[in-house]
Design goal:
Blueprint lengths: L5 H22 L1 H4 L10 H26 L3 H11 L1 H13 L4 H30 L1
Length: about 130
């Protein structure tokens, strides 16, 4: 079973976190706006937060689909390019002056998680290739 593999289990758990976050952002964008340092009543900000929610739901679907179908190489590629998302979020926060320490901590943690998963999945791919 794919979920007995530690890296697959961790990727699926991370995907579920992003699925829940995405659902929260779409369903209740006002409380979620603080993660980006946005005004919680501004219609444009709420629209932006909902768009981020759909992005996170799609990301979760990619991660779950690739993991559950054991597409390790494709998963490694998706994880690698996904690093663009938290990097971009951090750059947007820094350039806008919005958000506080919590916002930076959340996006920084996301960047570290995806970076670690990239290294881990690449290691798993190398071990699999040797066998």
């Amino acid at each position: 079973m794919v979920l007995k593999e530690p890296v697959s289990l961790v990727v699926c758990l991370l995907a579920l976190v992003f699925l829940m976050l995405g659902g929260l952002f779409v369903a209740t964008p006002a409380p979620a706006a603080w993660i980006y340092g946005l005004p919680s009543r501004d219609p444009a900000a709420l629209f932006y937060v909902r768009a981020i929610g759909f992005r996170d739901i799609a990301l979760a679907a990619y991660l779950l689909g690739l993991t559950l179908t054991r597409q390790r190489r494709a998963l490694s590629i998706v994880l690698t390019v996904t690093i663009i998302i938290p990097t971009g979020d951090l750059l947007l926060l820094a350039s806008s002056g919005a958000g506080g320490a919590t916002s930076y901590l959340l996006h920084g943690t996301s960047l570290l998680c995806f970076s670690a998963l990239v290294l881990w999945t690449r290691q798993v791919l190398q071990v699999s290739a040797r066998q």
